[in-house]
Amino acid sequence: MANLKAARGRISFLKFESQNLQDSSNIQTHVVDYYKSLYTANNSVPNNGLVADIIPSLVTDNENDMLSSVPLVEDIRAAVFSMNPHSAPRLDGFGGLFYQSYWDIVGEDVVKAITMFFEKSWLLVNFISNFVVLIPKVPKADTITQYRPIALANFLFKIIPKILSHKLSSIAARIISPNQTAFTKGRKIVENFGLASEYFNLLDNKCFGGNGGIKFDVFKAFDTIEW
């Protein structure tokens, strides 16, 4: 059964331009080259200060101090015990259940590792090593653009974003535009769906100058780190 599941999850065929890639080494090279190109910044956008002029500074000095402060032992422990203990273990083989069950033994070392990051912006070797899994966006995906990479991080590393997200949650609703309804506590993405539907229903209404709608391709915004 395990071998069957592994075979089903393996990418054995990809199309690339006019080629049909079936050899595992060719598929591997193509996938690595594609994502290297996709996630490499070209640094071609000059810093002209436009962003600073348009986007107001919403985080106060006190809030900035809070966000960058070194977390207390209690904060780190709370983050560890708030995470799913049964999530699949990653590269190091240790999941949340291990850290929660043996906190009395490993807790001190975990606290040292996390505080080191906040104090000196330094991470242990292989701290951010990940499993990268390609998830098909559509059934029978046969091109690399039809896959989305998902990084499965070590549990120890995930403690840091957990702490940061908890800190940000206290000011997120104020600094994030009200138009952003997804992934923000207290807001629902369906609100924008309803709003878009209402706009399209009004397109047939006559008005001075006419009506129009614009559809944006958000592929690049979601699949790259710059645009």
Question: Features of this protein?
Answer:
11 helices; 227 residues; two-stranded antiparallel ribbon; extended; mainly alpha
Care to give the gist of this entry?
This protein is mainly α. It contains eleven helices and four strands; from the N terminus they run H-E-E-H-H-H-H-H-H-E-E-H-H-H-H. Strand 1 (14-16) and strand 2 form a beta hairpin.
Overall helicity: 40-55%
- Quantity of strands, as a count: 4
Low-confidence stretches: 1-7
Q: What assembly state would you assign to the polypeptide chains in this entry?
A: single chain
- What is the ordering of alpha helices and beta strands? HEEHHHHHHEEHHHH
Mean pLDDT: 83
Give the N-to-C terminal Cα separation: 44 Å
Please characterize this protein's 3D structure.
The chain is mostly helical. The protein has eleven helices and four strands; from the N terminus they run H-E-E-H-H-H-H-H-H-E-E-H-H-H-H. The chain has helices at about 1-10, 25-40, 50-55, 60-70, 75-80, 95-100, 105-120, 155-170, 170-175, 190-200, 220-225, and strands at about 15, 20, 130-135, 145-155. Strand 1 and strand 2 (about 20) form a beta hairpin. The longest helix has 18 residues, at about 105-120. The protein is extended and about 70 Å long. The two termini are about 45 Å apart. InterPro entries: Retrotransposon-Effector_Assoc, RT_dom. This is Reverse transcriptase domain-containing protein.
SSE layout and pairings?
Elements: H1 2-9, E1 14-16, E2 19-21, H2 24-38, H3 50-54, H4 61-68, H5 73-82, H6 96-101, H7 103-120, E3 130-136, E4 147-153, H8 155-169, H9 172-175, H10 190-201, H11 219-223
